[in-house]
Design goal:
Blueprint (H helix, E strand, L loop, with lengths): L9 E3 H8 L3 H9 L5 E3 L6 E4 H16 L13 E4 L2 E4 L2 E2 H7 L2 H10 L12 H12 L7 H14 L9 H18 L14 H9 L6 H13 L7 H11 L4 H12 L7 H15 L3 H9 L17 H10 L6 H17 L7 H11 L6 H21 L24
Antiparallel strand pairs: 1-3, 2-3, 4-5, 5-6
Helix pairs in contact: 4-10, 5-10, 5-18, 6-7, 6-8, 7-8, 7-12, 8-18, 9-10, 10-15, 10-18, 11-12, 11-18, 12-18, 13-14, 13-16, 13-17, 15-17, 16-17
């Protein structure tokens, strides 16, 4: 069977089984788990499969089988697939989704596999009050992750269903927690301005005192949507470990926030913001890049180990920022950073941190604003991973340690 009428190369069940090295019955098991999609032959001679999809699954299976014991942890997920030049949410191009749907709608897509138009999230009054009080009690110098972690803990104790790990209960917690986190952050804009209830509008007044404009708000919403998930980043793996131990969803999100606070994960946006701000102050990016290289530091906002070229999230944000007049100087500085670094080192492309820094610098946001956007956005992705992990065998995230100490028996100290 080799049906190419619709531009796809179709293969039979027998051919798919041969490619995968399994029995035909196992091929249908892959279909039931959502790892393959089948199409019924109209003349009733069985099912056909997209050859490229089968080949991709076979490649992943071979990689997993070749992984040595004690090697990298491999986790099956149906949420995000990353390829050398793009990434997908549940099989749909993530940039296309983010360009056509708002953050709340794409969050629902990750959680449920449906795209409800006009989805809105509302913070429960009791949770929001508790979270605001807890955040207000923190010292003034507290960072955004400090505030979000405290707000998460406060929201948790107001939710009597937090230990109910059924899909319905976890979805309810997810839809409540994300707006609670945003509402708990202190406002820096006009306190009386509320907008239309979209999360991006609610977040705007927590990031800048400037009046919002439609173009800049659209970029903020796009950033939130693009960042919602990125496979098993360190913080997401922490969430899945917590969920594997059947920690409630608020505790799982707290685990992700704890990892995000590490300087190698969550601080990249802050560094890129400061670099762009310095480039604008000094009238050019070349001397700023030179200072980083001279000091032996990596240039913030450049390079991503998962993409061969420019981070597709950065590409999408740069394109949208072209329509924001006040972003012009910062956008030009970002491009100069890329060009200068490429001329001296080569092979480095812009990543999403650099694009997000263009937004935060040009809209009068503080250096930590990118960190806030990232954490708020990724909370929905963490909830999606928790939902998925709750369906797996408990405590499966238990790698074996490779003991390197002295061989027993040793004398009693």
């Amino acid at each position: 069977m080799n049906d190419q009428a619709d531009g796809e190369r179709r293969i039979s069940t027998r051919q798919a089984a041969e490619l995968l090295g399994v029995k035909p019955a196992t091929v249908y098991a892959y279909v039931s788990r959502g790892q393959l999609t089948s199409r019924r032959d109209p003349v009733g001679r069985g099912s056909s499969f997209d050859a490229r999809e089968v080949e991709a699954l076979a490649l992943r299976s071979r990689r997993e089988a070749a992984a040595p014991p004690g090697g990298e942890l491999s986790v099956r997920t149906s949420l995000t697939l990353i390829e050398p030049d793009r990434y997908y949410f549940r099989g749909v191009d993530a940039v296309d989704l983010a360009s056509r749907y708002r953050y709340e709608e794409v969050a629902e897509w990750l959680w449920t596999g449906t795209l409800p138009r006009g989805a809105r999230f509302t913070a429960p009054p009791e949770a929001l009050t508790a979270a605001r009080r807890a955040v207000a009690a923190l010292p003034e110098h507290s960072g955004p992750i400090d505030r979000l972690r405290v707000a998460t803990a406060a929201a948790a104790v107001t939710d009597p269903l937090r230990f109910d790990l059924s899909e319905e209960a976890v979805l309810g917690s997810a839809r409540c927690l994300v707006p609670t986190l945003v509402g708990a952050l202190p406002e820096v804009g006009a306190a009386g301005w509320r907008g239309d209830g979209r999360l991006a509008r609610q977040l705007w007044s927590r990031l800048t005192a400037r009046e919002p404009d439609p173009d800049a708000l659209a970029v903020l919403d796009l950033a939130l949507t693009l960042l919602i998930d990125h496979d098993l980043a360190a913080s997401t793996l922490a969430v899945r470990v917590a969920a594997s131990a059947r920690a409630h969803p608020y505790a799982a999100v707290s685990a992700g926030l704890g990892v995000l606070e590490g300087p190698l994960h969550g601080a990249a946006g802050r560094l890129a913001h400061r670099m762009l701000a310095e480039a604008l102050e000094r009238g050019g990016a070349a001397p700023v890049v030179a200072d980083h290289l001279r000091a032996g530091r990596r240039v913030p906002g450049l390079g991503h180990r998962l993409y061969e070229g420019e981070d597709p999230r950065a590409t999408a944000l740069f394109a949208r920022l072209e329509g924001v007049p006040q972003a012009g100087p910062a956008l030009a500085a970002a491009r100069e950073v890329v060009a200068t670094a490429a001329a001296r080192r080569g092979g480095l492309h812009a990543n999403v941190d650099l694009a997000l820094a263009v937004l935060t610098v040009s809209c009068g946001m503080p250096a930590e604003a990118g960190e806030t956007v990232f954490a708020v956005s990724r909370t929905a992705g963490w909830m999606a991973h928790a939902l998925e992990e709750y369906q797996e065998r408990p405590l499966r995230m238990r790698p074996s340690g490779q003991y390197q100490g002295p061989r027993p028996p040793q004398p009693l100290p």
